[in-house]
Batch of 4 targets.
Target 1
Amino acid sequence: MRIIVTGFEPFGGEKINPSLQSVMKISDKIDGVDIIKLEVPTVFHKCDEVLAHEIEKYKPEAVISVGQAGGRNGISVEKIAVNSANASIPDNAGNMPVNEKLQADGKDEYHATICIDDIVDELRENGICANISLSAGTFVCNDIMYNTLYLAEKKYPHMKSGFIHVPYLPEQVINRPSVPSMTLDEIVKSLEIIIKTVINKIKNDNV
């Protein structure tokens, strides 16, 4: 079994991105499953191309993408991705789409196919602030979530997919005293719990 976990490069003037830093620190193997860690560009459509190449190469049982959501105070497990690209800031290639469809023949929205309720329960049982979010936004985080689910529907129906938003790191909020943050170690712990939960669900479903 293989699981791909993606993190984004820094964007929006930030020098670091907690999604990428945390993804690169998770274990290479969890519960006997190979974890393929992938950096993706914070660029509309390009992130999907990079991920699609790795999906074709590894044929994973699941893809878990991770992104930064500055201002959130815990782990957000996204439920819904929408067929819309609508940016309030440029991506890292200068693209700034307005009300553009991600896929002409795609559904208006896709729902995560990883076990989001189980994930939130496990995180909370481990003392980690977590919730189900109903909006992944319309920036590049939503782009990769939507297009991975779209790709699964069209080409890899066995593959589970979902998206996790993580807060800022403490060093990102030094000059933002009222903005919440989470330590890197806690984010890494959270992601490993999420991965274990997804693995257990897949294994139990295959029994």
Target 2
Amino acid sequence: MQHLLLLHGALGSKDQMEPLATALHNSYQIHTFNFSGHGGRPFPEKNLSIPLFSEQIAEYLQESGIEQTNIFGYSMGGYAAMYLAKHLPAKVNKLVTLATKFHWDEKTAAREVKMLDGNIIREKVPAFAAQLQERHAPNDWLVLLDKTRQLLTALGNNNTLQPEDYATITTPSLVLLGDRDKMVTLEETLAVYKQLPNARFGVLPGTPHAFEQVNLSLLAFLIDGFIRERA
């Protein structure tokens, strides 16, 4: 049975992947883990970054005795997995991303950072604030917000993967986007898809950015079909 690693996004945790894991557990050996600072995992000494998250994927695989795995990465998790596929391609059999924002510049980062104001979140969406507090305990979710803002600002100043990098990523990839995603554009997703030499592209209907609003039956069907597809 093949391995399948499910990766959460920024401000998420491995618990969010459990419904998808349940949908696929009969077909794969499912793995999940928390990136640093997420889901109660301690904050690292260094800043949060895509290379750091990629290193943590590789460390998890090594600690689990997994030489190669399929990966599904949601949002930031997809970016970290794509970075891993570029630098350690032998580790990744097939890669599926959903709602991954690949294009970052100063303007984009500033817009996203503005949405990560803890005071505004507590005032405008207190239920989300409570959810973040519970999800990341015993870590302070406000500290995670601050470190995530630093991560996004750094991406805006120097995007970790440049457009030309994708042409060197030969891992078979399925790049997915929800048609109602207001964070990730169709244009940036298509641009990456067209650069990847061995990729498929798909759009999930009626699907916004939030993972909790994804049709998991459809997503599981697409992931499974792509992994089983013969080269």
Target 3
Amino acid sequence: MNQNLLNFCFLIVFSQNIFFAQNHFEEHNFNKDTIKERFNKLNQKTMIELYYNEEVEKKIIQQLTYKLKFYNKNKRNLEFYLPLFHEQLSNEKLPVELKYLPVVESNLNPTATSKVGATGLWQLMFYTAIENGLVMNSYVDERMDPVKSTKAAVRYLKKLFDIHKDWDLAVASYNAGPRTISKAIQRSGGYQNYWNIRPFLPKETANYIPSFFATMYVLEYAKEHMIYIDNSSNYFFRTDSVLISQKVSMSQISKALNFPNQKLIDLNPSYVHKIVPATESQENYIYIPDSLVTEFLDSEKDIYELARKEFESREKPLPSFFSINSKLVYKIKYGDFLGKIAKSFGVTVSQIKKWNNLKTDQIKENQKIIIFPKKIPKN
């Protein structure tokens, strides 16, 4: 094949690629002028100061290119959780657009856990959760409770706004913490605007606001980008909470109500072992479809009696109950080693050795050691 023919073939392929890219761009409403116009309209109706620049535009294009399938695949979660977030934010007179933060934080996965231990829809850290009223123990992690974690996150966002008096800074602070934002303000020479202090922020936080703005834009204009979300579905509000007064498992409730066990677990992700404990210090509720509430109340005594008999005849003992950060006496099992135990409880090997005055890493089966756990171990 001569060089002229090669050049001609190259031009054809190149032209076809350009044609495809242009069509793809137009098909997904990637017109930058249209995006900017819509973004500015969105800015006019929110208390959050939205700033359109190259970084924000880049994040929007990325989402429209790569994340539309995700949004359509997960639209049931969007329909389920967003009305709940909207209600709680509205009740506290916070910008309702903050409801998109959990999309950025966890992709709306209520059991999501980060490498640093942030957990739940709102990715709350341990001490942030404690400070904002959540309970965590070996059976319950309320950071994974949709309602309670949302109330805690709203409470925390309100505190951050009181500190910074600016929603962009408050949202950045939600990601990085108030101290990181304060340091960036100092390093910038005292600027109080997110975009001015952005060069002095960690990379993750520098990308956080553009990602949040992009998520807000795409979901506010979901229909225009072929994401078909039923905003009137209110699926979450078709459930109701019932108080559990005795220890019972999800599978036992599922059998009694003839309701799929996995769906019950999905509605109640905060119960670590899929068991609702009975504790004097804490009231525990579960969410069930409101159509099943009467049936549950009518058969409640029978459910508890069944649970009691099954737990008593259980061959494997139930997991021990302990509060996070409290003293725990742990009995070494076959196959345990200090690194494995430390990872399981969110502590370090050196801490375990210090608490137990251990000179070496050697441990033996049935040996008892003291631990002050920082997280809930997996069953």
Target 4
Amino acid sequence: MTVSRTVCLGFAAVITLGTLLLMLPFATSSGTWNDPLVALFTATSAVCVTGHIVVDTATYFSTFGHVVILSLIQVGGLGYMTATTFLLLLLGRRFGLRDKIAVQQTLDREGLQGTTGLIRSIIALTVLAELTGTFLLMSVFVPDHGLGRGLWLSFFHSISAWNNAGFSLFSDGLVGYQASWMLNLVIPVLIIFGGIGYEVIFEMYLWLRDQIQRKSTRIVFSLNFKVAVSTTLALLILGTIAFWLSEYGNSRTLSPMSPSAQFLAAWFQSVTTRTAGFNTIDNGALSPTALVITIALMFVGGNPGGTAGGLKTTTLRILTSCTKAILQGREEVYMYQRQIPPSLILKAVGVAVGSLFVVILMTTLITISDPKVDFIRILFEVISGFCTVGLSTGITAGLSSFAKLVLVATMYIGRVGVLLLMSAILGDPTPSAVRYPEENLLVG
């Protein structure tokens, strides 16, 4: 039982438990036993913090069902190993070397020192962010739904946003609040910081603390921080501009809105495509250009170490830096005056190739099973599931049972990671001292 197998089987166990709970009669609003496929799809989507749905979450499930979904989102957002480790710490169990290695691989961090403190910090940060989001969203939901219902809506959407899940208790998503400045500020901020990575947030906190205390020591930001922040800002700005340019003349999305509402909708769309899954406009009404933009942003995703999915910004930057190095005739890859080790380059290539293979395979399978559905919408659905986004053009519920099972597998692979899943299947690599002679071949 390797670490990778522990993580993969752990996620599968949580999904299985969630499926059984969502099948119970008191998990549905009708009070009848739930369809096993609906329960499986919803549980997988919640644990994988995707947000894909085949039924209306707001009306199909009861309050108990909503609590189960929210619990699965929280466990899935934290990660199986993080949630399990914190529970073991609460129970007083000793934190062993194997546990530290598992957390290290799950969070994709260097070294084993400070792992226990990191887990506590992640839990504290998560609780603080979700409670703050709940408090701020109450000003949006309480006036419309009363104190009790408004508090529950604020709590649910705050947790869903921080964990980049995209589940909503409104049948039309957040379309009814597309002109609310508070909602269009709070939800995107929770999404961005939830998906930017815990290490980045902690570095940012230390820098702000030293600035406030006016310490003379100067913090040197890590390469991970520089790449994550700069790439995130660039994608958010470019995404907002691209969505506005492609949709401002679309009478089914931005055209009927005021200029300020158009900006809010374009901004929200740019943020939510980074693996969040909320919507303030109808994604099924997007133009072909906007669909392609959305697919590209979804595939990139967020940053490592957070609740986001996708290829990850760091992988994208490594691959683009490799291209830049080739064009400049260099054999070394540099970013921010730092050389990227070959092992990271190989890992980035492996993630990219593996991700493309999964997307192509799953898209092909659904195309075969549902040939009448437009290819662009199938591709949109698959990338949304693999990158744990949850956005849909409205075809999910109408897909065949086989296609839904394919999406279940896609969401699971996207959450645990292609390389981690392959490691779980093949086992840990065996070190070899064999070296082979080099030989060139034609490329490109």
